[in-house]
Amino acid sequence: MNAPLRPELSAPFYQPQGDECQLFEAAWQQQLPVLIKGPTGCGKTRFVAHMAARLGLPLITVSCHDDLSAADLVGRHLIGDGQTVWCDGPLTRAVRQGGICYLDEVVEARKDTTVVLHPLTDDRRILPIERTGEVLVAPPGFMLVVSYNPGYQHVLKTLKPSTRQRFVAMSFDFPSAEVEQQVVMQESGLAAAQAQQLVTLAGQLRRLSGYDLDESVSTRLLVYAAKLMASGMRPALACRTALAEPLSDEPDTVAALLAIIHTQFPA
Amino acid sequence: MEDIVGGWWDKLVKRAAYRGHAAAAVRLEQVAPLAPVFFRAMGGDPALALRSTVGTEHGARRRWLERLSGTGERVELAWSDQQAFYLPEKIELFADAALNRELYFWLMALAASNRPDGDWLNANRQAAAACLAAMPGLAASYQRLVAAHLPQRPDPARLPPAEAAWERAIRQALLQPQQALDTPPPVRAPYPLPLWLHPAPPTLEHTAPSTAQDPQQSGPRSKPQQRQRRRYRAQRVVQDERKNGMLMIFRAESLFTWDEYVKVNRHTDEDDDDNVAAAAEDMNRLSLAQDAHTKGGKLKFDLDLPAAAWDDTPLGPGLLLPEWNWKQQRLVDDHCRLQPMLPRDAVPAALPERLLPLARRLRRQFQALAPERTRKSGQECGPDIDIDRVIRFLAERHSGVAQSEPGLYQAWPPGERSLACLTLADLSLSTESWVGDEAGRVIDVIRDSLLLFAEALSAAGDSFGLYGFSSIRRQEVRFQVLKDFAERYDDSTRGRILAIRPGYYTRMGAAIRQSSRILLQQPAARRLLLIISDGKPNDLDHYEGRHGIEDTRQAILEARRDGLLPFCLTVDREAGDYLPHLFGHRGYVVVQQAQMLPSVLTRLYAHLTA
User: Which of A76, A82, A259 has the CB atom closest to B38's CB atom?
Assistant: First the structure.
């Protein structure tokens, strides 16, 4: 966390589902902050990493949690040598350097924390630092990206409407079966036939979300399963380890998931 | 002697004719926990419930031994309809228990992908083909099932030609479901095919609800049901109103079987038949008729004076409460008598199945409300350094004014959410009004809301009470205790919520005063009084209009003065006229569509308590 990701020569693999790459690029050019919403493991973080590499920008990721304070983002004084030393937080660092500051799962942060983002997200694009009296003006290369998962947000954890309204928003979902199969094959090196079975299985399991599962199987979990299978593990066992067990703790539900897995990969 | 020998013979011949594998039997209970999940994943309609089916006559040729023993004429086959999917109570078709279990899963996959169009043969064949194409793992188990089942089927070479054609078609469809085939000419029913769905599911013939009032229940509670999920083949019949019971309306030589519906000129049997349950098991079809009367006699249900035997169970002698007289501008002491009561006929019940998904979601959301920890700075000890205080301390020490070391740490003592919520629901007769086909009556919406709200609150860990009220003049304000603060929220409280019924009028003031009293006894920092209403306060004795409004307003002012937070949710669209006066313009919410009440209620609670 907080470590700037230097642009690599080859951007991390991302399989576009639509015109999200163009959208993101346009938002960057117009200096608009972006909000990305979508279920767990559908590729939000990968997408941001991919775009940062494509645009040649450093990426600073902050994983938000409910204990994240404004000082954690902006910076704080530290004690050293009998005097205090100011230390930039990740947000301040991104503003100084120019780059993408990515706040992952932003709803997890307390509501008062996200308010420090406000002056950065309108046309002023400034970051006032109260404790030092400094006012930073964001360079053209700076971009703010936040993401959250609308699936498990609960009643109290939603973005304040005043925060939401400052972003252009993109909605992500699990890719279509064909695209997902491509992703699984690309990420794991699994053969096409098994990848297709895996994606069909994912389609079956996703019918359960909201009824028996709180959240459905993610593309990330599929890739995990595919990697285990590609390494030579028995498909049924790989799916049990990577799909059934992570999705539920209830023995009955796990047993049912196994029965569903066995319709694709016999035990 | 003859009896005993007959019994032996019966046992013997039945055992000889019996073709199941009892040792390898797999019962529905064994797969029932997995079945709904599996069915949904296969693409089955998530609204369908799981039921066990009953045997239906298949009408096919039986072996002579079966005919001799009188067995084998019924078979339990799976099917699905608009309400549920039905699976056999047990499967003992194969000697291998694993195969029997696989058959359950195969039937569910088939039922989930079955589209009831076309004839039985082709519909099943196509559904099977679709399943096999999509699921290679299931295909492997299907091959095993077919291989095991084919030897059990009659040999086409030994059947009459028409039946043989059917048998051959079925065999081909089983082996190669992908291949289209023509339906052979109709014939007496082919040998039952347990791998496929029921050819003619015994559906309910008339499912439309009857318009007549439900007959009033009476007598002892129904016997504990042993197989609640069992599906009986039922038909609704119009009650025969003819009084000429003695007229011969049938040809004497045609014998009635005991499951045909005959109107006897007698409303109910006087004596309890002990083995009705056993008879129901054996009947082809249960006939249900709307009868205007039930045992125990008829009772005139008077709106003003409920007969004691029919009424809710009163708790204690009742309480005297004051009422506000706005003309005199004073509180008249002991003006109303409030009677706490328990709803009649409340039996412990689980949460209705249709509310489960929503309840699950609410529980998850509200668990997050459970006590949060908050950071406290300036502590003597704690896991984190309080940087701000350290800096100040160092600066002060530099300038020489520092005293002894202050608290320089941050601690995380577990926070307490000290909150009590009392929900008071209006159960007056006006809640009987209809809001929509989906939602039903207002009272149904209120019932669902209370159930879901209680689920959410119990997940949040806040203490809460649920009450309902209605009134008949000032002498009887009926205060239904659905869940007391001290009680656990469990099946018996759920049963009480399920048993609420609309009736009488709305004397809101007294009910609010009593609720305030209860709430004030709760040791919580914040106390929320939620009122769910559907209209203005009114009662017979001058309580309608200004008097009722002013009394209610006074009761709410008293509650506010005592430090409670009253809030009103209403489904009355004209509530904007009087509610601001009662609750203040930020103290109420009008729910435009009654169906939205459960979600509004829970969202509101989160807002009010956040």
Answer: A259
Work out how many CB contacts closer than 8 A connect A with B: 98
Of B506, B496, B499, B495, nearest to B426 by C-alpha is B506
Number of Cβ within a 10 Å radius of residue B223: 10
Query: Is B558 within a domain?
Result: yes
Give me the domain span that covers residue B285.
Answer: 232-241+251-263+274-295
Any domain includes B537: yes
Closest to A106 measured CA to CA, from A172, A35, A177: A35
pLDDT tens-place string over residues A88-127: 999 999 999 999 999 998 888 877 788 889 999 988 899 9
Which residue in the block uniquely carries the two structure tokens 């030897």?
A: B151
Closest chain B residue to the Cα of A203, Cα to Cα: B41
Do B404 and B486 belong to one domain? no
Q: Do A210 and B361 touch (CB under 8 A)?
A: yes
B105 domain-assigned:
yes
Domain identity same for B283 and B135? no
Residues from chain B that touch A87, judged by Cβ atoms under 8 A, are none
Q: How would you classify the pairing of strands A75-80 and A83-88?
A: antiparallel
Residues in A touching B141 (Cβ below 8 Å): 262, 266
Q: What is the pLDDT of residues B65-117, one digit of tens each?
A: 777 777 777 788 888 877 788 888 888 889 999 999 999 999 999 888 877 66
Instruction: Give the number of domains in chain B.
Output: 4
State the pLDDT at residue B295.
47
- State the pairing for strand pair A134-137/A126-129: antiparallel
Q: Does A77 touch chain B (CB under 8 A)?
A: yes
Same domain, B388 and B501: no
State whether B255 and B356 are in the same domain: no
Q: Are residues B393 and B443 both part of a single domain?
A: no
Q: Do B33 and A264 touch (CB under 8 A)?
A: no
List all residues 6 or more positions away from B91 whose beta carbon is below 8 Å from its beta carbon: B25, B26, B100, B101, B103, B104, B194
pLDDT, tens digit (0-9, with 9 covering 90-100), for B478-526: 898 999 888 888 888 999 998 888 888 888 889 999 999 999 988 887 8
Closest residue in chain A to residue B140, using alpha carbons only: A266
Residues B344 and B596: their CA atoms lie apart, in Å, by 28
CA B536 – CA B548 distance, rounded (Å): 8
Query: For B437-488, what is each residue's pLDDT tens digit?
Result: 666 788 888 888 888 888 888 887 788 999 999 888 888 888 989 998 888 8
Residue for token pair 């059917």: B166
Tell me, what amino acid is at B274?
D
* Interface residue of A204, A237, A252 to substitute, partner B, most B CBs within 10 Å: A204
- Does pTM top 0.90 for this prediction? no
Domain final position from B411, B429, B464: B411
- Give the one of B33, B40, B391 whose C-beta lies nearest to A208's C-beta: B40
Q: CA A220, CA A218: separation in Å to the nearest integer?
A: 5
* Residue A210 near chain B (CB below 8 Å): yes
| B606, B369 contact by CB (below 8 A) | yes
Chain A residues whose CB is inside 8 A of the B375 CB are 67
B300 in a structural domain: no
Percent of residues in chain A assigned helix, strand, coil, to nearest 5:
45, 20, 40
Q: Does A215 touch chain B (CB under 8 A)?
A: no
| B469 backbone dihedrals φ, ψ, rounded to 5° | -145, 155
Please give the backbone phi and psi of residue B379, each rounded to the nearest 5 degrees, phi first.
Answer: -95, 155
- Write the ipTM: 0.81
Length of chain B: 610
From B126, B152, B175, give the residue that closes a domain. B175
B406 plus B466 within the same structural domain? no
Query: DSSP label at A242?
Result: I
Residues B490 and B546 both lie in one domain: yes
Q: Do B33 and A259 touch (CB under 8 A)?
A: no
Instruction: State in Å, rounded, how far the first CA of chain B is from the last one.
Output: 80
Domain match, B564 and B596 both: yes
